[in-house]
DNA sequence: ATCCTTCCCTAACAAGTGTTTGGTAGGTTA
DNA sequence: TAACCTACCAAACACTTGTTAGGGAAGGAT
């Protein structure tokens, strides 16, 4: 069911974000380890190992293990919503909006692969805690954006009306974001190419038209 | 067609598996907690709490926490492959095989929701450990079944040839199994109904045909 | 009445957890 | 030169983790 392309943890080969200073480097390393092993399964000693320092030294840069996770997720979500908002602000038609959202999503996966993987794994549990309330907020905004686009498309007659819209929403949402679990930046396909193929499947299906 | 293979109705309120005796009850409870919080994040004391006994008492029934996970996953996979194999043995056409596999998958999600969720979350990490080598085996069989069906369909001209088959495989696979993260048995839709709608989207797309 | 099986409890163990404290080497600034 | 800041280490802290050992209550079988 799931792929098993485990990548050995290296010290500095992260293709991740342009990190400002040491703090950013450590965050990128932590994100990589979190994504690979899960948040709770990851010990601060493991992060320190991967970063080349001792566990206690991490606390010079961060308050706690949880605050690392917090900063990783909130940074990602800020950038995600910057992209989404500019798409939504363009007020395109439903189909064009969907296409733009999907493409933007794959670009985010390309840039924040680790953060997306962490989000996928842990968001459901974390959303309950007060500190991570913004995750639940984000989920609601997310649903409004996608579900609204789908409903508008059904009303305009560009999306099929014989489908459960809510089911279609989860379908589209999941198909896009689970890609973070197998996607590796610098692979065979660019984010835009993957988005194009995904959109082709979601919009027109994989069956030959008769 | 409907398998009324006389499954003994347990007196517990869990809609999960038919549990033989106390051991099965405990396994079902553990699966529920694992699915909710993740395996490593779950303490044996938490499982014991949910089951109404003390942590140490679990070790009368099981060797270790890991063996609980093992039994949950292997039991699920055994049943999954029983279903898949009978589908594959029927040697239907590519499209019919795909439909049958998807439908069977949603039935498995319906019956083993917790186990599927655990599998989704942890399989990637576990597959490396020798004890869970069967997870990697299962992944390979899985890929062969789905990818083979898709390739056969392309060769037969029933599936589109202009798509990356490997991408399509991951697309179909993921769309089906991530449903375990939101599906709740006894909800508005039956497994068969969800399968029908998913298949409609995967095969024909969500866009209106022009 | 005795034995045996099933099931659980109490109490502890060693290892690992996130985190704190005090110290220090090296570069930058005053 | 002296003071200061950055980035780290070494060593410990209180706590939680999975797990074990020994014992006992209930009930059916002999």
Question: What do these coordinates show?
Answer:
2 copies of one chain form a homodimer. Chain A is mainly alpha-helical and 210 residues long. Chain A has a domain at 65-204: Tetracycline Repressor, domain 2. Chain A is 65% helix and 0% strand. The first copy, chain A, contains 9 helices and no strands. Chain A has helices spanning 21-37, 44-51, 58-61, 65-89, 94-111, 113-126, 133-156, 165-177, 191-204. In chain A, helix 5 packs antiparallel against helix 7 (133-156) and helix 5 runs antiparallel to helix 9. The longest helix of chain A has 25 residues, at 65-89. Chain A is elongated, with a radius of gyration of 19 Å. The two termini of chain A are 31 Å apart. The model of chain A is unreliable at 2-19 (pLDDT under 50). The structure holds a DNA duplex (30 and 30 nucleotides).
Report helical residue fraction of chain A. 55-70%
Radius of gyration of CA atoms of chain A, rounded to a whole number: 19 Å
- Greatest chain-chain interface? A-B, 47 and 52 residues
Mean pLDDT of chain A, to the nearest integer, reads 90
CATH architecture of the domain at 65-204 in chain A: Orthogonal Bundle
Contiguous low-pLDDT stretches of chain A (5 residues minimum) are 2-19
Regarding quaternary structure, how should these chains be classified? homodimer
């Amino acid at each position: 069911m799931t792929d098993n392309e485990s990548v050995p943890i290296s010290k500095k080969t992260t293709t991740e974000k342009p990190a400002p200073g040491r703090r950013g480097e450590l965050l990128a390393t932590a994100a990589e380890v979190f994504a690979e092993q899960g948040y709770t399964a990851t010990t601060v000693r493991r992060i320190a190992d991967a970063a080349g320092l001792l566990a206690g030294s991490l606390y010079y840069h961060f308050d706690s293990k949880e605050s690392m996770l917090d900063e990783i997720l909130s940074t990602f979500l800020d950038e995600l919503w910057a992209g989404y908002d500019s798409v939504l602000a363009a007020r395109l038609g439903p189909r064009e909006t969907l296409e733009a959202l999907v493409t933007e999503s794959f670009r985010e996966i390309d840039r924040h692969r680790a953060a997306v993987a962490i989000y996928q794994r842990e968001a459901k549990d974390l959303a309950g805690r007060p500190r991570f309330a913004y995750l639940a907020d984000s989920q609601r905004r997310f649903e409004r954006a996608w579900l609204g686009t789908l409903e508008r498309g059904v009303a305009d007659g560009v999306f099929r009306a014989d489908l459960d819209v809510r089911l279609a929403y989860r379908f589209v949402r999941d198909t896009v974001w689970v890609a973070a679990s197998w996607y590796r930046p610098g692979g065979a396909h660019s984010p835009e190419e993957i988005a194009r193929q995904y959109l082709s499947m979601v919009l027109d299906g994989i069956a030959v038209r008769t």
